[in-house]
TrEMBL record:
Organism domain of life: Eukaryota
Transmembrane segments: none
UniProt-listed InterPro entries: 6-blade_b-propeller_TolB-like
Xref: SUPFAM superfamilies: Tricorn protease N-terminal domain
Signal peptide: 1-22
Descriptive protein name: Dipeptidylpeptidase
Length: 344
C-alpha cells in the first residue's frame, strides 16, 4: 500500500506540473518546446511524507539560461486536496534542499551548508540550528531528537571540524599529486580521495519554550569502531543508510575495503546504535554480493534489504532479506522469484 501511496503522490506532483503547461497552451500561449523552455520547467524532487501522513514536502528546481544558475525551493503538498503551497523563496542562484519533517508543524532544510528549521508557513522566518564544518547530505530526523546525515571526511577523525582542518591544510599544498598503490584509482567518474562518505548522528533537541534556541549535541562518527585499513585511500565508504522510527538504530550499506576492490562486489549491511554505544554489527557475513536499499519495519523490530548473492556479478538477481534484530536471524523471503525487485 505504501508503494502505491508514494506513486500516487508522484502522480499528483507530475500532474500539477503538466497541468500548468497545459493551461498555458489552452490559453493560446502555445509555443514549441525549445531548449530555453525545457530548462525553465520545474524539476520535481521525491516527496517526503509528514508524520501524520496528510502532507508531503518536495523540492522544485529550474534553471535560468541567461544567468547560468539554478533555483531550488521547497513546496508543500496537501495529499487529500492536491493543493500546493511554496514554502521557501524561488530565487535564481539560491538552493533550499533536503526537506525533512521535525513535527507536523515544523520542517527543516539545508541552505548555504547549514540546517534550518521553519514553521509550516510560506516564507516564514527560518532559524539556523546547525552549521556543520563540512557539507552534509542525506539528512534525516527522528523524534524525539535524533539527527543523522552523511559527510565526506578524512580517515580517523572524530568531529567534522577535524576533517575541515585537514582539508584546509591540504589546500595549501603547492602540488596536486596523488600516489596510488592499488588499482582502486577511479570509480566511474570519480577519482579515489581520502575523504569518504561517512554516517554521523547527533542530538537535536527542541527548547522548552519558544524564546530559547534548539540545542545540538556533538556529532558521532558511526564508522569509528570499524577496523582500519592499511591504505587510507581504500577504506570504508557509506553508499546509503536507513534509520528506524525511533532514531535509535542506523543501518548503513558499505563496500568492504580490500586490495581487490576493482573486481569485488562485496557490499555489506551493518547495524549500529545511533548513540555509538556499541560497535557496528555485520549482518551479511555469509554473502559476498551487493546489498542495497535497507528499510526498517514500523516497529523497529525488522530490517529488510535487497541482496545479490553471486560474488563479482553486478547484474545478479536481487533477493529480499529480512533480519530479525532481536533474534539476530536473517532469512530470504523471495527465493523462488524470477523477477528482480529494485526497491522496498
Amino acid at each position: 500500500m505504501r508503494l502505491c501511496g508514494l506513486a500516487s503522490i508522484g502522480s499528483l506532483l507530475l500532474g500539477a506540473a503538466v497541468g500548468l503547461e497545459a493551461a498555458d497552451n489552452h490559453a493560446g500561449n502555445t509555443k514549441p518546446l525549445d531548449i530555453r523552455l525545457f530548462h525553465s520547467l520545474n524539476r520535481v524532487g521525491a516527496p517526503v511524507v509528514s508524520p501524520d501522513g496528510t502532507k508531503a514536502l518536495y523540492t522544485q528546481s529550474h534553471y535560468s539560461q541567461d544567468d547560468n544558475k539554478s533555483a531550488t525551493f521547497i513546496s508543500l503538498l496537501n495529499i487529500a486536496s492536491a493543493e500546493v503551497q511554496r514554502l521557501t523563496p524561488d530565487t535564481i542562484g539560491k538552493s533550499y534542499s533536503s526537506p525533512l519533517w521535525i513535527d507536523d508543524g515544523t520542517f527543516g532544510f539545508l541552505h548555504n551548508g547549514s540546517l534550518y528549521l521553519q514553521p509550516l508557513k510560506q516564507d516564514a522566518a527560518p532559524t539556523e540550528v546547525f552549521k556543520p564544518a563540512v557539507d552534509i547530505s542525506s539528512v534525516k530526523f527522528r523524534a524525539p531528537g535524533r539527527l543523522t546525515f552523511l559527510a565526506s571526511v578524512y580517515p580517523n577523525i572524530t568531529t567534522l571540524a577535524e576533517s575541515k582542518k585537514k582539508a584546509d591544510a591540504a589546500a595549501t599544498n603547492i602540488d596536486s599529486a596523488q600516489v596510488y598503490s592499488n588499482l582502486w584509482v577511479r570509480h566511474w567518474d570519480e577519482w579515489m580521495t581520502l575523504e569518504k562518505p561517512t554516517p554521523f548522528a547527533l542530538s537535536l533537541n527542541k527548547p522548552a519554550n519558544e524564546s530559547e534556541k534548539w540545542t545540538v549535541g556533538n556529532e558521532i562518527n558511526l564508522f569509528r569502531d570499524l577496523p582500519p585499513f592499511e591504505d587510507p585511500l581504500i577504506r570504508w565508504s557509506c553508499e546509503e543508510y536507513a534509520v528506524d522510527t525511533s532514531g535509535a538504530q542506523v543501518a548503513f550499506v558499505v563496500r568492504q575495503p580490500s586490495e581487490l576492490m576493482p573486481t569485488m562486489t562485496n557490499v555489506d549491511v551493518y547495524l549500529v546504535p545511533s548513540d555509538g554505544s556499541q560497535p557496528p554489527r555485520l549482518l551479511t557475513a555469509d554473502v559476498d554480493g551487493i546489498a542495497s536499499g535497507p528499510v526498517f519495519s514500523a516497529d523497529g523490530r525488522f530490517l529488510a534489504w535487497l541482496q545479490m548473492e553471486t560474488p563479482r556479478y553486478e547484474s545478479d538477481i536481487n533477493r529480499i532479506y529480512v533480519h530479525d534484530i532481536e533474534a539476530n536471524q536473517t532469512r530470504a523471503i523471495s527465493r523462488d522469484w524470477t523477477l528482480s525487485p529494485t526497491a522496498l
